[in-house]
Amino acid sequence: MPLLDIRDLVTAFHTPDGRVPAVDGVSLAIERGRTLGLVGESGCGKSVTAMSILGLVAAPGVIESGKILLDCDGRTDDLVTLPERDLRRVRGGRIGMIFQEPMTSLNPVFTIGDQITEAVRLHRDVTPALARARALEMLRLVRMADPERRLDEYPHQLSGGMRQRVMIAMALACEPDLVIADEPTTALDVTIQAQILELLGDLRRRLGTAILLITHDLGVVAETCDDVAVMYAGRIVEQAPAAELFARPRHPYTIGLLAARPTGRRSGPLTTIPGMVPAPRDFPAGCRFHPRCSFARLPDCTTHTPALDEIAPGHLVRCPFADALGPPRPSTPGTAP
Amino acid sequence: MNSPPLLDVAGLETHFPVRRGLLRRQVGSVRAVDGVSFSIAKGRTLGLVGESGCGKTTVGRSVLRLVEPTAGTVRFAGTDVRATHGAALRALRRRMQIVFQDPYGSLNPRMTIRAILEEGLVIHRLGTADERLVRVRAALERTGLTASALERYPHEFSGGQRQRIAIARALVLEPDFLVLDEPVSALDVSIQAQVVNLLVELREQLDLTYLFISHDLSVVEYLADEVAVMYLGRIVERAPADALYRAALHPYTLSLFSAVPTIDPARRRRRIVLSGDVPSPARPPSGCRFHPRCPLAESVCREADPPAAGDAVHVVHCHVAARELDRAGDAGAAAARITDMLARSGSATLSGGVGT
After folding, report:
1. Domains in chain B, start-ordered, CATH in brackets?
2. CB–CB of A193 and B259 under 8 A?
3. Which of A82, A76, A5 is nearest to A36 (CA)?
C-alpha cells in the first residue's frame, strides 16, 4: 500500500462562466521515502492537485469525485471525506507543506521561533520550553546559520534562502511522512536553489520523508526525483521513473518540452511546441494536446480521450502512438546521447 | 571585433541614496552598479548574467538613462549619452529601446494594442496618422501577430503574446539597439522557445544589437556572442560565450554554472555549493566582493580589489585566477586547475540532490 494514493481525482471550479475542471481524473501514488516530481506549465493543474490533497481548495473550487488515501500506521484515511477537524491534524502533522513564496507564507508579525513553536504545539502536547527547544533543533537541522539568534528574528530580517529554510523547518517539525513542496526554489537564485535542493535531499535520506515536488523546472526534477509525472491540461499524460522519462520520453508533449529547452550554443532554431497552453475553460475535446501535437493527428485524437497505458514497467503514457514516438529503447539502458 | 562598438560603457556607476529619519538625510548609498565597463559591436549580443541584486537590471536602465548614472561614460554610436539633453536625447532614445520581463505589468491595460504601439511614434512625431498605422502593422506582423490584434486590449492576450506586443512596441521605432531585460523569464518553457526564436530572427533580419539581461544561463549560452557575469555591482568575468562556458576562470562563474540543474547527465558538473547569501550592496565587502563566499579566498582577496587579468577577449577579476593564468599560460589549463581546486575545497558535492 503506497503512502499516498490518489485515485481519479476531479477538482473543478464553478465560475460564472461555467464549470472549469482544473484537475480532471488524476491518479498518482507516492511510496514511503520516495520523491515524486509533478511537472507541467502554468494552469496544468499541478498546484490544484496539491491543494486538493491538503483540503485547501478554495471556493468556488470543489473536489467533485475521487479518493485521496493516506496510509498511516496501518490505518487508511480518505482525505476527501475526512472532516475538517481531522484534516487540520493531517496538515502540518502527517503532511508538511513548503510553498513557493516564503515571504507570504510566513506571518510577518511573529518571530521565527513563535511560528515554528506554534506548528509544534498544534500537533504535539508539549510545554512551551520543549517546543522552543524543538524549534531550535529544527533550525539546526536545516543548517541555519546562528540559529539561537534567528529564533527571535522576524521574517523580513531574513534573506529568501533563509526564509525557505524556516519553511522547511516548520514543515518537518512534526516529522511528517510526506512533504508537499510547491515550487520551493522557483523564487530563489540558482546558487541558493542548489543549497535548498541539497538540504531537501539530505533531509530525505536522514528522515525517510516522502516528497511530492511540484515544479515547472525539468532540470530540478532530473536532479532530485525518483519518479516523474507530467501534467497537461488537468490530466497526467506521462509517468515514469525519472531516468526512464528523461532518456525515453514517449508522450509528444513531454518530447516537445524536453526539446524546447536550449542546450548549448545555437546551431539552429529551438524546437517549439506550436500554439499555447489552453486555459481550463478551453480544454479541447479528445486528447487535450491534439491541437498542438506535431505527431499523429488522427480523427481519433480529436474525439477520444486516450487511456493512460503502461508501455513498459512503471512507464505510463496517455497516447496511443507512444510506442512509435521518442528515441528507441536500447538493449542496454542508460545510453542516451 | 573590428568595427567600432555601437555601445561603449566605461566605469559606469549608479548609486542610490539611502535616506533615514524625519529630514530624509542621506545616511549611505546602495552601490547597485559600481564600476562596470563593456562594449558591444553592431549586430552582436552581450549576455549580462548574475543573481538578483547583482545590478544587471540597473546596468540596462542606466545605459538608456531610465535611471541616472552617478559616474562613468556611456557612448552610443559615438555620442556621449550622459552629455546629451532635450531633442538630441530623444533622437538617441528612438534608436535604443527596452523590453521588460513582466508582460503583464509593462503594457497599459487601458490602452488598445494600436495605441500602445503608436505612442512612441506620436512622442517622436514620426509620420502622419496613416504612415503610423502602416508602421504599427508592420511591427506587429514582424513579431508574429496579425492586424486583428490592433483594437484589442492587453488582457485579451496570453503571456507569450503580450511579450510579442512588447517587442513590437520596441521595434516600431526602428531601433538599432535593444535592452532585453529577462524577456523570457516569466514565460512557460514551450512559449519561451517561441520568443527566443523570434528574438534571434529579428536580430538577423534587422541587424539588431542586444544587451540581453538574464539569470537563465542556458538561454544566454544559446543566443549571446559574449557573456559578462556580474556580482555585487561589478563584472567579475567577461568572455566570448563559447570560451566562458568551456573554460570559466572566476570561482563565482564556476559555482554559478555548476548550480544549474540539468537533465542531461553528460552536461552535469561537479556542484560547488556556495555558503551564505549575497551581501548587501549598501555595505559591499572589502577587497574582492566575492571573498566572504569564495572557497578559494586568500588573505590578499580580503584586502585588495582584484585588477583585470587575462587577455583582450577573456577578462577575469580574481587574484587566484590571475596567478593560475600566469602559471598555466592558457585559459583552458588555468580553468581546469581552478575547477580542481574548488572540487578539493570541500564545498563541492556531486550533483544529484534528493534522488541519490
Report:
1. 1-84+208-246 (3.40.50.300), 247-349 (no CATH)
2. yes
3. A5
CB proximity list for B285: less than 8 A, separation 6 or greater: B232, B279, B291, B292, B302
Per-position DSSP letters for A12-46, written without gaps between them: EEEETTEEEEEEEEEEEEE-TT-EEEEE--TTSSH
The distance of A86 to chain B (nearest Cα, Å) reads 30
- B173–chain A nearest CA distance, Å: 26
Nearest 5°: the CA angle B62, B64, B67 is 40
| Residue whose C-alpha cell is 545555437 | A266
A146 near B CB under 8 A: no
Cβ separation A270–B262 shorter than 8 A: no
Instruction: Give the integer Cα–Cα distance in Å for A184 and A167.
Output: 9
Interface predicted TM-score (ipTM) of this complex, two decimals: 0.84
Chain B closest-CA separation from residue A81 CA (Å)? 32
What are the chain B neighbours of A162 within 8 Å (beta carbons)? 277
User: What global pTM score does this model have?
Assistant: 0.88
Burial of B4 (0-12, 13-18, 19+ CB in 10 A): exposed
B170, B163, B167, B227: which is closest to B192 by C-alpha? Answer: B163
Contacts A262 to B, Cβ<8 Å:
193, 196, 218-219, 221-223
The edge-to-edge listing of strands for the beta sheet with B45-49 is: B96-99, B177-181, B209-214, B45-49, B226-231, B234-240, B315-316, B309-310
Residue from A158, A166, A191 to probe the interface with B (highest B Cβ count within 10 Å): A191
Rounded mean pLDDT of A77-87? 93
Q: Which amino acid is at B224?
A: A
Specify the 3-state DSSP secondary structure of B116.
Answer: helix
The pLDDT value recorded for residue A332 is 45
The minimal CB distance from A265 to the residues B189, B221, B277 is found for B221
Which three-class secondary structure state does DSSP give residue B73? strand
Q: How many CB pairs under 8 A join A and B?
A: 148
pLDDT value for B3: 66
Supply the pLDDT for residue B348.
59
Q: Are residues B121 and B127 in contact, defined by beta-carbon separation less than 8 angstroms?
A: yes
Those residues whose C-beta lies under 8 Å from the C-beta of residue B166, and which sit 6 or more positions away, are: B99, B100, B103, B106, B107, B183
Chain B CA closest to residue A205: B354
Instruction: Give yes or no for a contact between B211 and B46, defined as CB atoms under 8 angstroms apart.
Output: yes
* Average pLDDT score over chain A: 89
Instruction: Tell whether the model's pLDDT for residue A13 goes beyond 90.
Output: yes
pLDDT in tens, B236-257: 999 999 999 999 999 999 999 9
Chain A residues whose CB is inside 8 A of the B278 CB are: 189
- Strand A95-98 and strand A178-182: pairing? parallel
CB B234 within 8 A of CB B71: no
Q: Report the mean per-residue pLDDT for chain B.
A: 90
Chain B interface, mutation test: which of A183, A190, A232, most B Cβ atoms within 10 Å?
A190
Q: Distance, in angstroms, between A226 CA and closest chain B CA?
A: 6
